[in-house]
Amino acid sequence: MSRPLATGVLLAVLVTGCSPGYPDSDFISCHSDRQCGAEQVCFPEGCGDPGQNIVVEVVPNPKGGLHAQDFRVEALRSEQNLELFDQALLQGQVRVEATSSSSIPYTTPITLRLTGESLLIPGVLRRHESTLTPENGGYMLPVGAGNYTVTLLTPNTELPPISTTRDVQVHPGRSVTQDFLLPALSALVRLSGKVVGSNGLPLDVELEAQALDENQRPLSQRVAVTRATGELSLVLPPSALLLPNVLLQVVPTSADTLVPKQTFIVNPRQGIQGPLSMGDFGTAVTVRGKVTDQNGQPVPQATVYLQGKVGGGGQYSSRKVLTDATGTFELPTLPSAPDAQMTLFAAPPPGSAAGLTLKPVTVPRGGTPVAQEVKCGTRMKVRGQLLLPSESQPAPGVRVVVESVGEHPGWPRPAFTVEAPRTTDDQGQFEIALDPGQYRFDFIPTDGLPRVSRFVTVPPGDGTPMGGVQQLTPFPLSKGRRVSGLVSISGQRMMQPAAPYASVRFFRVVNVEGRPWSLLLAQTLTDQNGTYSTSLPTR
Amino acid sequence: MKSPLRRLASSLLGLPSILWLGLGVAVWTSGGCLLPQEEIFLNEFPQPRNRPPRIVEQQVDPSHRIIRGYGSDVCELQFSVIVEDPDVSDTLYVSWFVDHDPSQQRGADHVERIQPNSNAKAARDQRGTFKPKIPSIDFSRLNVPGDHVIEVIVSDTPLVGREPEKTPVLLENGTELYDSGYSATYAWFVRTATGGCQ
């Protein structure tokens, strides 16, 4: 046996012999770049070429009307200049029907609301909202590249909102035309009615009403219900008459108003028949209690609220309150429906060892305060160790940010983003207590190495006071390569040799189980000269 | 007959130029020890003063200040700020306040620490972000129907209440001063409605 080969075999034996035998099921297909091919890097979804499937988002100056532009980068170079197009525009005409065959320009203020996401980077939400006055019916609005639903609202509640029925695709540098035709006032559908309590009298609280289609898309503006009389008047577009039914939703305007949300089904051709009764939902009840952990210690700053069905068929969600330093809370609520229980949620704050707890409770009628003690389970402690790319040394000082990406069966989706209270220690170790759910762990070094992400599924605690420990396989950070360049604007309408203070973000975009998915690889900002520099993973 | 001074002068003038140069260097280097110098040249550089961080206002997200339809048309929002500080080694603190009430002092609703960049750039790569969502099990004042004000305060020392914490600075002469820290702020207005997101 040759000397290099013998050395290699010996090293392999030593490495495998010393490996602590962690399960490989923590991560999808790989946990280290070494498990991948020669030119590949271990990404959360598996091994992949770090120079491929990259999309860069550049946001030059949103305040100045220069919004996001996205570009695929086929082969990423170390010197990667980014040339931007002109600003993308949404433009068109807003007209109002005068007769069945003619229309006139609409010249009073409108609000345009665009909601959607990037065309190239799944999961990157884009939103624009602007109030403007069309000039002779024409409007022009700079927007970011994306796939949008556009809604036009007028300050006049007599006009229903108008939403685009198909997505509006805006590409970088392009202008997209979207015209709106507001219906004539005489053609609008009006629904008038009266909201009452179970006794047939107005409720004397602040309520709002809105008509929706079966997909919960608004057909009317949200209007206030007259407090003293309970009367409401909604205006729907003529197209509402083509629908078999519309949903009329009545909601309180404040969480302090102890009234449930009620949804009524209305035939738009017949109008509202009779009073809209909110049902017999009872009177206010106060639920008092204490939230403790498995050791009986109080849990301060826990979020507590109640949700469920109430009398009369409405759905009620109480306001959320925080426990005080002694773990006690006081929650005003409605009584539960006679045939159903409500769910009491107790969510300890991030960093607490106590975990999210759901408890079915019956809140009886009668106004007598109800006592509810909540003993929380213990969160699973997720532990792991990060190594430097050489794998021979630990990686200290790395931030660990955990983002919820899905729920565990039978559990609500956990809190959105949690950061480990401390960066990794001198041994590269971290620990964070989490509720059951699916998470993406982002490891963000501060010493020039690129960020690394992994998916982790956290099961419920084991039911013991300690809650259980989930030990992740140790894994290394990736090596980094510097990528730098100049951001400039080279459009037909706008030329700018350098775009200072532009946001630059690099994403990896791949298909996971047939669905497009994106991962943030790096983010930075151009300097005063329009140049940027950042670190991306490499082998 | 030459006087002794004339003899010395003529012998010195007779030296080769390289020896003149050596003599000059010896006088110049020993001058630091023999000749008194102005103190201003001997003191170390003064301690640099703290400088303020800045929110890169052209990059605040959302770029418009008034946001309507949260809870009905939009179920998820993201607020983010990019910050820069000429003191590149300062840790920055991004504190988010929802509906701050001066008469009811309470801490920030969300706090993040922004570490110095590895490349010593003033603009930090890490962004301050706040992501409210409906429905959510989190306690969020923003999710309560009604009108809200979201403020972000970026400071170069941790906040005490709403002010940057004062840190003592010991000068060379033994004097102790307090660096009062700096902060920068930005705000949005949000109208939260009850509806489609519940």
Blueprint (SSEs and pairs):
The complex is a heterodimer of chains A (539) and B (198).
Chain A: H1 3-18, E1 41-43, E2 46-48, E3 54-59, E4 69-73, E5 82-84, E6 88-97, E7 103-105, E8 110-117, E9 125-132, E10 138-143, E11 146-153, E12 162-163, E13 168-170, E14 175-177, E15 180-182, E16 189-196, E17 207-212, E18 223-225, E19 231-236, E20 246-252, E21 262-266, E22 276-277, E23 285-292, E24 303-309, E25 315-317, E26 321-322, E27 328-333, E28 342-347, E29 357-361, E30 370-375, E31 380-387, E32 399-406, E33 417-419, E34 429-434, E35 437-444, E36 452-458, E37 469-471, E38 475-476, E39 479-490, E40 495-496, E41 503-512, E42 515-525, E43 531-538
Parallel strand pairs in A: 5-39, 6-14, 6-15, 16-22, 23-30, 31-37, 31-38
Antiparallel strand pairs in A: 1-2, 3-4, 3-41, 6-7, 6-10, 8-9, 8-11, 11-12, 11-13, 16-19, 17-18, 17-20, 20-21, 23-27, 24-25, 24-26, 24-28, 28-29, 31-34, 32-33, 32-35, 35-36, 39-40, 39-43, 41-42
Chain B: H1 4-13, H2 17-34, H3 39-42, E1 54-55, E2 66-70, E3 79-81, E4 83-84, E5 92-98, E6 110-114, E7 128-130, E8 146-155, E9 159-160, E10 163-164, E11 167-170, E12 176-179, E13 183-192
Parallel strand pairs in B: 2-13
Antiparallel strand pairs in B: 1-4, 3-7, 5-6, 5-8, 8-13, 9-10, 11-12
Describe the overall structure:
The complex is a heterodimer of chains A (539) and B (198). The longest helix of chain A is centred in the N-terminal third of the chain and has 16 residues, at 3-18. Helices cover 3% and strands 45% of the residues of chain A. Chain A is mainly β and 539 residues long. In chain A, the strands form eleven sheets. In chain A, strands 6, 7, 10, 14 and 15 form a five-stranded mixed β-sheet that branches. In chain B, strands 2-13-8-5-6 form a five-stranded mixed β-sheet, with no helix packed on it. In chain B, strands 1-4 form a two-stranded antiparallel ribbon. Chains A and B meet through strand 8, strand 9, strand 17, strand 20 and strand 26 of A and strand 2 of B.
